[in-house]
Design goal:
The chain has about 400 residues and is mainly α. It has helices at about 20-25, 70-75, 105-110, 115-130, 145-160, 175-190, 205-210, 225-240, 250-270, 290-295, 310-320, 325-335, 340, 345-350, 355-370, 375; strands at about 100, 220, 275, 380. The protein is globular and about 55 Å long.
Length: about 400
């Protein structure tokens, strides 16, 4: 997939001076020491009588993370740690969740809240549950986990029953709206089938997270915000004790793997637009969590290292067992050209010495690049299970 034209690309005009040169040598009328305006002209630049002038250096490609302050924020951010999810007790006060985040101040309030820390701790717990395990490894499959997998299989079948419309547009097949409309009509009843009787009333609160987990039907797009909603839906089930800690391995190896299969099929069949994509600057156009879970799978692996993603034989033989490799294989399938050019951040990560560092770095990046971004989190919902703390 090509990055949008509005994105910065490595190709720049040869007439443009690099920012470092421009800052080192201010234009006429400005002080060469402090950069402030001057009354008189600054002294002429030193000449180079016995050597050639400094080259007009242009890198082959721009840095993987295009905003330096983002990179610094990720480096300084502490590594998130696992937290036990507190289970709610009667009386239950389920309510329709609403949007609360509208500004950077709201983001800061959310980041400091117990809700945010516990939700992120839940994601870390899921990551740790799959550590060192292949997808096919045996795991406990509770009736709830089996029911969620069955729901996702039903949603997959709907794609076959609702073929894409014939249209010339590259992105956004309108048949996705029909698929999403069916989800709105039947999704609630699918969830009610596995909810215990005492939690039937929670449907008003947890269904909105579920509906927002599969993309936006108006914009016909999908991104990390929708993926976060799916994680939030699972978190709500954990808050009610419907899924327990012993289910976490199954949630990742069975539920999330099936969810990833569903989303990739939706993306390919209905040509979903990447929601808020960073183009080449982002980790991936659509997903983030499978990279976290997948890197956890590979921690302490005897043979496969982060640089192994460049070995096509490894991707072909092991992508069905390791989510990280599956994601890399999918990226290489849908994007053309050199991997270092269309996915520079993933290429840079392949140079990290071990998977533990990759995993901890991705967890910090998820916090900074997803949970701390207003354009993503402005759509996030808060109710009684995930509280907005004033």
């Amino acid at each position: 997939m090509e990055p949008s034209k509005s994105q910065n690309t490595p190709e720049k005009s040869t007439s443009e001076a690099p920012a470092t040169v421009a800052s080192a040598f201010p234009p006429s009328g400005y002080c060469t020491n402090c950069g402030g305006p001057t009354i008189s002209e600054p002294p002429p630049l030193a000449s180079f009588p016995e050597m050639s002038p400094p080259p007009n250096y242009r890198p082959i490609r721009a840095p993987a993370i295009n905003l330096p302050h983002n990179s610094q924020a990720i480096i300084l951010s502490p590594v998130p740690h696992a937290e036990q999810v507190p289970v709610v007790t009667p009386p239950y006060q389920f309510e329709t969740p609403v949007k609360r985040i509208h500004s950077p101040d709201d983001i800061r309030r959310f980041q400091e809240s117990a809700s945010c820390k516990n939700f992120l701790g839940f994601v870390v717990s899921l990551s740790e549950s799959i550590r060192g395990h292949k997808i096919s490894d045996p795991c406990e499959i509770s009736p709830t986990v089996a029911a969620i997998v069955s729901i996702l299989e039903t949603l997959l079948q709907w794609i076959d029953e609702i073929p894409p419309a014939q249209q010339s547009a590259r992105y956004g097949n309108v048949s996705f709206r029909s698929w999403h409309e069916r989800l709105g009509e039947r999704g609630e009843s699918l969830i009610l089938e596995f909810l215990p009787e005492e939690f039937k009333e929670s449907i008003v609160e947890i269904v909105p997270y579920f509906f927002d987990s599969f993309g936006n039907s108006s914009r016909i797009d999908y991104g990390t915000g929708h993926e976060t909603n799916f994680a939030a839906w699972l978190y709500c089930l954990a808050r009610m004790g419907i899924v327990k800690e012993e289910d976490y391995h199954g949630l990742v190896a069975r539920v999330f793997v099936k969810y990833l299969e569903l989303m990739r099929k939706l993306q390919m069949v209905y040509c979903l637009e990447p929601a808020g994509s960073h183009g080449v600057w982002g980790l991936d156009d659509y997903h983030f969590l499978p990279f976290i879970f997948g890197s956890s799978q590979l921690i302490d692996h005897k043979y496969m290292k982060p640089k192994s993603i460049h070995n096509d034989d490894i991707l072909e033989n092991f992508s069905s067992e390791f989510m990280y490799l599956s994601c890399i294989a999918f990226v290489k399938k849908v994007k053309k050209g050199l991997f270092a050019e269309h996915s520079p951040l993933l290429d840079d990560i392949s140079g990290v010495p071990n998977w533990k560092k990759v995993n901890s770095g991705l967890l910090k990046m998820y916090k900074v690049e997803v949970l701390e971004k207003v354009p993503i989190m402005q759509h996030f919902l808060f109710g009684w299970l995930i509280k907005w703390e004033e």
